[in-house]
Design brief:
The structure holds two protein chains of two kinds. Chain A is mostly helical. Helices cover 45% and strands 8% of the residues of chain A. In chain A, a hairpin with a 5-residue loop joins strand 5 and strand 6. Chain B is built from no helices and 29 strands. Classes of the chains: A mainly alpha, B mainly beta. Chain A: This is Organic solute carrier partner 1a.
């Protein structure tokens, strides 16, 4: 990742210095890692906003499926409740990565009820991120309790309906992610691998048996048939309580094992335009929904523009203006463009850069002040964002 | 036993919905109609038997004369009655009935949808033609709407509402053997796995209620007085409709069953599930004892695909068609 700063940002001088140092040491500018001092406040801000009571209450109201446009807007706003700024290209790629990861989890979910176990894996992992910040940790616990309360009583059939509705949201997205391709959970055509072997889900019998009974219910005959697969008995069931072994690996951080892994995502060449481009006939309803969600995100968490730093998560070294030029060239039929838009996320340790960043982080901590947002209007923020859609 | 034929391409991919494929043969015109649901659209494909001509049409779930309303479709199914064929589409807003070629909507029935969404979803699901002049449609609250269908025209009326199920209707099926001797005309299934067996008439009569095991029955058929039911546990159960006696049980699939179909002339049974497998079985019924013999004949694996629809294309089971979630084609298989 390269660090970009606003020209008005006093940090710019420091980062330029760091960049020079990094290059001096013959390191790629991308090979920079973020020390905890910088990450933790970002994490706390995002988690704190996402798990705030207002936002969660709004999310847990019965409502229709969002469009991709709405979902991306909400997630962009969430990401920007910290001091971090992602440029639109980075946000687009990050959104694709998030959607494909979640699609993988929902698609492979063994039983519909296991959607909860996936969510609880998510929440358990988030708990770890914020375990040293009691206020935020408490919010996470509260949210978890609320989810248990709302969803525990649903039947398997209702969970399946939920899952089927989520699958509609993910339909036709086949963005390839290099981590998934490497782990063989995704095929080169972008589709996820479905195994016909392994343990059956909890509560399901291993296929292969035909039984007949007489009028009194007594078993009369038993026969086996070839299943075309290699199924085994189920493993133990995961815990649906506040804490416990979820058993399922779906929903856990796929990067923990491969922390040196690069992540590339690329669209398959034949991918069609997403539904974002089609006119949204339910626009008014969606905007109302969005307004309620945005309104429930605390505006106080929005820092003043001057204290933000921009992150270009992905390898393009160009400034945003240059990117725009390129897009214009592309639009006017520039030849030879690669079919693939490749995103690299590299997370490798770089001691020199880490020290530089720690310095910067120190600057932040000392100079940080709570931004006064009494002047800023939540509505204006929202309208501004809407205009950009 | 079966080999794969050339697939039919569809304009959108199939959504993950139970029984998401409907097939109707129009013998006089040497055509077959297929319908596949994608979110709020029904894809309808007309295929000529010689394999040379395909035409496509898309139907939306819309209230007539309301421009902006659109809702998710739960099911589309052809209903063949002696006097006419109709295409019935159920959604979150209501029930639509079209002429079987999808050209004209002849009837719209609005469901009671609350102003603001509630925790209970509202939708129609479960469609079946029954006997001479009825079409039955299930709803999410568990009720079954019985519509009286005139031999032509749009004077379709709601004749009765059957309220026996407490959970959402998943599927319904009428007796498909063609035999007039069978007492039971219709079976309905719900999200709790409960089955109700009905006799049709001016007033429908409940003949039997078979309890489920809190496990959804996603697909059901009725053949020669035997209920064939597919469950979320991957099991298929065979019940004697009128008595409720369980005659056979198969641990058929490793995941949720999404579709069952029977070829009435040959007794072939087709089952398809999220485990990516389609299986063909043969059923033998012994009338004296009402016992059922189930023989496994064939497997087809649709790699990496969670199957959502599987139907025979003819009454003998000579050919069958399959749809899968995220797949933009109808895969066809024919007997070798």
């Amino acid at each position: 990742m390269t660090i970009r700063c606003d020209s008005s940002n006093p940090l710019r001088a420091i980062t330029r210095e760091s960049a020079r140092n990094i290059r001096k040491n013959n390191r790629e500018p991308d090979q920079v890692s973020w020390p905890t001092a910088v990450l933790q406040p970002v994490m706390n801000d995002i988690v704190g906003t996402m798990f705030s009571k207002n936002f969660m209450d709004e999310l847990l109201k019965p409502q229709q499926l969002y469009s991709h446009r709405t979902m991306k807007t909400v997630l962009t706003r969430l990401a920007h409740t910290s001091i971090m700024r992602l440029n639109p290209a980075s946000m687009d790629r990050l959104y694709e990565l998030m959607i494909m990861a979640f699609k993988y989890q929902v698609f492979l979910c063994p039983r519909p009820k296991d959607l909860l176990l996936i969510s609880y894996n998510h929440i358990d992992t988030i708990r770890e991120f914020v375990k040293d910040t009691p206020v935020v940790l408490n919010q996470v616990d509260e949210t978890h309790r609320k989810i248990i309360e709302v969803y525990s009583s649903l039947s398997e059939g209702e969970f399946q309906l939920l899952r089927q509705t989520l699958l509609i949201f993910f339909q036709d997205m086949h963005v390839r992610v290099s981590l998934f391709l490497k782990n063989r959970v995704q095929n080169p055509n972008g589709r996820f691998a479905l195994s016909t072997s392994g343990p059956v889900p909890h509560g399901i019998d291993v296929p292969g048996l035909i039984r007949t009974f007489d009028c009194k219910g007594k078993e009369v005959s038993r026969a086996e048939f070839p299943t075309g697969g290699c199924y085994t008995s189920p493993i133990r069931e995961g815990s649906f309580l506040l804490h416990g072994d979820r058993v399922s690996a779906l929903g856990l951080n796929m990067y923990t094992v491969n922390h040196l892994e690069e992540t590339h995502t690329s669209k398959t060449p034949t991918v069609k335009q997403q539904a974002d481009d089609t006119p949204n006939l339910l626009a008014k309803e969606e905007l109302n929904l969005l307004a309620r969600l945005m309104g429930s995100m605390k505006a106080e968490n929005m820092p003043k523009a001057e204290t933000v730093f921009r992150i270009n998560l992905f390898t393009t070294d160009r400034e945003e203006e240059e990117e725009e030029e390129e897009e214009q060239a592309r639009a006017s039929g520039g030849a030879g463009q690669s079919l693939y838009e490749v995103i690299n996320i590299q997370a490798m340790q770089d001691e020199q850069a880490a020290t530089e960043l720690a310095l910067i982080a120190g600057q932040f901590a000392k100079g940080e002040e709570k931004p006064e947002n009494s002047e800023s209007n939540k509505g204006d923020d929202l309208l501004a964002m809407m205009d950009d859609l | 036993m079966y080999h794969k034929e050339k697939s039919i391409q569809i304009k959108n991919s199939a959504s993950a919905l139970y029984n998401n494929l409907s097939v109707m043969r129009i013998a006089p015109r040497r055509l077959t109609y297929f319908t596949v649901v994608h979110a709020n659209v029904v894809n309808m494909i007309t295929a000529s038997w010689d394999g040379l001509n395909y035409s496509h049409r898309q139907l939306q779930s819309k209230e007539p004369n309301v421009a902006t309303s659109t809702s998710l479709i739960m099911q589309a199914a052809f209903c063949a009655l002696p006097s006419r064929d109709l295409l019935v589409v159920t959604s979150q807003k209501g029930i639509q009935m079209y002429e079987s070629d999808g050209s004209i909507m002849v009837y719209w029935h609005a469901l009671d949808t609350p102003e603001t969404p509630t925790a209970q979803a509202v939708f129609g699901r479960g469609i079946s033609a029954v006997r001479e002049n009825f079409i039955c449609v299930g709803v999410s609250a568990g009720a079954i709407l019985v519509f009286d269908i005139p031999s032509k025209g749009s004077n379709i009326t709601l004749s009765e509402i059957l309220e026996e199920h407490n959970e959402s209707i998943t599927d319904m099926a009428s007796e498909c053997s063609g035999s007039q001797e069978c007492i039971a005309d219709l079976v309905s299934a719900d999200d709790g796995g409960n089955l109700c067996v009905w006799k049709s008439g001016e007033e429908f009569q409940l003949l039997n209620k078979i309890s489920g095991f809190d496990m959804s029955c996603s697909s059901v058929k009725l053949w020669k007085g035997t209920v064939v039911a597919g469950y979320g546990t991957g099991q298929i159960r065979f019940y004697e409709a009128v008595t409720g006696i369980l005659h056979a049980e198969v641990n058929a699939h490793a995941r949720w069953i999404y579709s069952l179909d029977i070829a009435p002339f040959s007794g072939l049974l087709l089952s398809a599930a999220e485990d990516s497998l389609v299986r063909v079985w043969h059923l033998t019924l012994t009338p004296e004892t009402n016992s059922v013999e189930v023989a496994h004949l064939h497997n087809e694996c649709v790699t990496d695909t969670q199957i959502c629809g599987a139907k025979f294309c003819d009454g003998d089971g000579y050919a069958f068609a399959v749809t899968g979630y995220d797949l933009s084609e109808i895969i066809r298989y024919t007997q070798s």
